[in-house]
Design brief:
The complex is a heterodimer.
Chain A: E1 4-7, E2 10-13, E3 18-25, E4 31-37, E5 44-50, E6 53-57, E7 64-70, E8 73-79, E9 87-94, E10 101-102, E11 106-110
Parallel strand pairs in A: 2-11
Antiparallel strand pairs in A: 1-3, 3-8, 4-5, 4-9, 5-6, 7-8, 9-10, 9-11
Chain B: E1 4-7, E2 10-14, E3 19-25, E4 32-38, E5 45-51, E6 56-59, E7 62-67, E8 72-77, E9 86-94, E10 98-101, E11 105-110
Parallel strand pairs in B: 2-11
Antiparallel strand pairs in B: 1-3, 3-8, 4-5, 4-9, 6-7, 7-8, 9-10, 9-11
Classes of the chains: A mainly beta, B mainly beta.
């Protein structure tokens, strides 16, 4: 089964908080992604890790900090976020050159 | 990011009719073009994909066609059913596992 698991499913944080989103896949995929999705919009690419190395950073503000501890895990560290950062954060993985598979997402609200 | 244009943005069809969604992509996109279906409050799910060495691919009521010369690909849904109602996204991949999504089409199937 194609499965990417994300935790937490919901997160409410203040603008001075530090929190992390976590993602795990066991499909042996070598590329992992973070996307941000606002209501009625397409997923917006934030970061790409290929073979555990950061390969793409789409000019994301430094208050978002990705980390790839190993080939199965991907984290997104959050610090000093703004209310406009509230969104659905989707983790995904893919094998090189094939479709990406998304986790269920983490719904983030910044208050 | 790279550009994928998608039309129409909204589409309403009567149950049993066909629906067609079209995407165009900019130069240098790679050879892989997937389509995703996203139901309200859920993750995007891969429903069909096509590689550039194939002109058409079909899976039951859904099909995708690709015209590399014109740089466009289309999703065709036949015999539409109410459960087909969702937002559909096309995507294309660029070098470095960069997946970018089209702007989305909100499909409503009217019973």
């Amino acid at each position: 089964d194609t499965e990417v698991t994300q935790t937490p499913k919901h997160l409410v944080m203040g603008m001075t908080n530090k929190k992390s989103l976590k993602c795990e896949q066991h499909m042996g995929h070598r590329a992992m992604y973070w996307y941000k999705q606002k209501a009625k919009k397409p997923p917006e690419l934030m970061f790409v890790y290929s073979y555990e190395k950061l390969s793409i950073n789409e000019s994301v503000p430094s208050r978002f900090s990705p980390e790839c501890p190993n080939s199965s895990l991907l984290n997104l560290h959050l610090h000093a976020l703004q209310p406009e950062d509230s969104a659905l954060y989707l983790c995904a993985s893919s094998q090189d050159g094939t479709g990406i598979y998304f986790g269920e997402g983490s719904w983030l609200t910044v208050v | 990011g790279e550009n994928v244009e998608q039309h129409p943005s909204t589409l309403s069809v009567q149950e049993g009719d066909s629906a067609v969604i079209k995407c165009t992509y900019s130069d240098s996109a790679s050879n892989y073009f997937p389509w995703y279906k996203q139901e309200l409050g859920k993750r995007p799910q891969l429903i069909i994909d096509i590689r550039s060495n194939v002109g058409e691919k079909k899976d039951q009521r859904i099909a995708v066609t690709l015209n590399k010369t014109a740089k466009h690909f289309s999703l065709h849904i036949t015999e539409t059913q109410p459960e087909d109602s969702a937002v559909y996204f096309c995507a294309a991949i660029w070098t470095g596992n960069q997946f970018y999504f089209g702007t989305g089409t909100s499909l409503t199937v009217i019973p």
